[in-house]
Amino acid sequence: MKVKTILVSQPQPATDKSPYQRLIDKHKLKVDFRPFIHVEGVTAKEVRQQKVDFAQFDNIILTSRNAVDHFFRLTEEMRYKVPDTTKYFCQSEAVAFYLQKYVLYRKRKIYVGERKIDDLVQVFQKFSKEKFLLPSSDILKPSIPEALDKIGVQWTRAQLYKTVVSDLSDLRDVYYDILVFFSPSGIESLFKNFPDFKQNDTRIAVFGNSTVAAADQAKLRIDIKAPTPETPSMTMAIEKYITGVNGK
């Protein structure tokens, strides 16, 4: 069956120059974007219940832009002025760049990894006797605490935001040829919103091993998978599939 419509379970790209736009133009597709999950911040009261005192930490580990936003949101709500001497350990350049929204970059001590916490091992070891705070969601990849424990630093997790299933009830009677997922939470959201979902002719596209595992567990048929050596991005994987079923 030819593909004409796609639903991507993420926010719409901020620019018309996204790879999805090229797909739309080239293959004359209808592509909609709808986050299946969203993030909600916890309250200052909930932070206190975790017995987290921001003043005890000279070092902040930041793994995402959400972590940056909610750390500074809560320090403001709790009227805690983050000292200029605080050191920031950013998992990637993208996170470090986003940090500039809150701090004057050139006047702060900021350490940046390429993509993973492991990239910062040597830097962490320089401050191994100091305390580190890890702002996180209620969902935390096991690789992050495992890496920190392996390095041997003193770290404390603070759950400052949580992943919540979005209300998709308005999509109940809407059909798409392909549904695109990027996380296990997206799969979970599909079945929480539509417990009686039957895949039938709907094609399922998944990104990442954990999403593949969640789709398998939900007994979904996976038609499109990324990343692979041949198709490292989701749009490349989708295009390869569409070329096969629609023709060039």
Please, could you describe this protein's structure?
It contains nine helices and twelve strands. The chain is elongated, with a radius of gyration of 21 Å. Strand 4, helix 3 (65-77) and strand 5 form a beta-alpha-beta unit. With 248 residues, the chain is an alpha/beta fold. Helix content is 33%, strand content 23%. It folds into two domains: 5-36 and 171-246, 3-Layer(aba) Sandwich (Rossmann fold), CATH 3.40.50; 40-162, Rossmann fold (3-Layer(aba) Sandwich), CATH 3.40.50. The protein has helices at residues 19-27, 44-49, 65-77, 93-99, 121-126, 143-151, 184-193, 209-217, 234-246; strands at 5-8, 30-33, 37-41, 59-62, 87-90, 109-112, 131-136, 154-159, 161-165, 178-181, 203-207, 222-226. The strands form three sheets. It has a five-stranded parallel sheet. Strands 6-5-4-7-8 form a five-stranded parallel sheet. A two-stranded antiparallel sheet has the order 3-9.
CATH architecture of the largest domain: 3-Layer(aba) Sandwich
Regarding CATH, which class of the largest domain?
Answer: Alpha Beta
What is the CATH third-level topology name of the largest domain? Rossmann fold
Instruction: Report the span from N to C terminus.
Output: 15 Å
Helical residue percent? 25-40%
Q: Provide the β-strand percentage band.
A: 15-25%
Shape: elongated
Strand order of the largest sheet: 2-1-10-11-12
Unreliable segments of 5+ consecutive residues: none
